[in-house]
Amino acid sequence: MSDNISQILDYVKEQRAVDFNAYRPDTIKRRLDLRINSVGAPDYNSYLYCLKENPREMEGLIDALTIKVSHFFRNPFVFEALKKFVLPELIESRHGEGLRVWSAGCARGEEAYSMAILLNEIMREELLFKYLFILATDIDINALNDGQNALYTNEALSEVKKGYFDRYFAAEGDSYRLKDEMRAMVTFASHDITTCKPPTEGIFSRYHIILCRNILMYLGRDMQERVFQSLSESLLNNGYLILGEAEIIPQQLSGDFHEVIPHTKVFRKGP
Q1: Could you tell me whether strands 132-138 and 169-172 are parallel, antiparallel, or unpaired per DSSP bridges?
Q2: Which CATH class is domain 76-269?
Q3: Which tens digits make up the pLDDT trace of 230-242?
């Protein structure tokens, strides 16, 4: 990555503790160039000056550099595997104890809320866990605020089953708002997975399910391996790690995980 781009990313890291140097250089350069063009800066140095003089531009830059393409029940086959295999196994093994779920890189909360809906459906007639803790984290504050607001377009809801849609969403203008009882199930927090440290929210540091989908593919190889190691350490033995369709377990950790159903990218930690 060029020195001029690195100076911009270093400034972002200094001001917001978010390290975009860990992401793939071509992806960052493309998104940064689009942002610079949109504000009319002639070059990287001019844009860095603009960034320092206009604190509000920092939000625009972070928004431009982060990936927020998501929708409810993205890749439905994965959620069917969770519903029919993973969650019943956890219900049996937990014996009524608590369940902890972390959605890392949650964008506007679609994935975390999908998990909340899935769990609520399973427990509609019987309380199967003493408590549920669903944590949704992202580096983009605006996306987190959108998630807490929980107002979504038709596009974000395209994979939602009609029964779920009727039970959990209410029309509001041209959009739909998730009902309060589902919103209350999810805790949102700012967190950068490239720090390779677990989130500090809640009293828990290890989870039964971690979803980290379509985030790691944007990181460089070395950072991918460090983040995978961190996620593995944050996952309990016999817990489940769910990755994106194009993502794989690094070689040095491949012996610690196995895919429970082929082609789902749902991995169980342990033998």
Answers
A1: unpaired
A2: alpha beta
A3: 999 999 999 999 9
Strands 266-269 and 257-259, by their bridges, are antiparallel
d(CA 229, CA 208): 16
193-197's contacts with Cβ under 8 Å and 24+ in sequence apart are: 193/104, 193/105, 193/137, 193/227, 193/230, 193/231, 194/19, 194/22, 194/23, 194/219, 194/223, 194/226, 194/227, 195/17, 195/19, 196/226, 196/227, 196/229, 196/230, 197/230
Predicted TM-score (pTM) of this structure: 0.83
Nearest to 159 by CA among 107, 119, 110: 110
Within the chain, all domains assigned CATH 3.40.50.150 are found at 76-269
- The residues that bridge with 212 in the sheet, in sequence order, are 243
Residue range 82-135, pLDDT digits in tens: 999 999 899 888 777 889 999 999 999 999 999 999 999 988 766 677 788 999
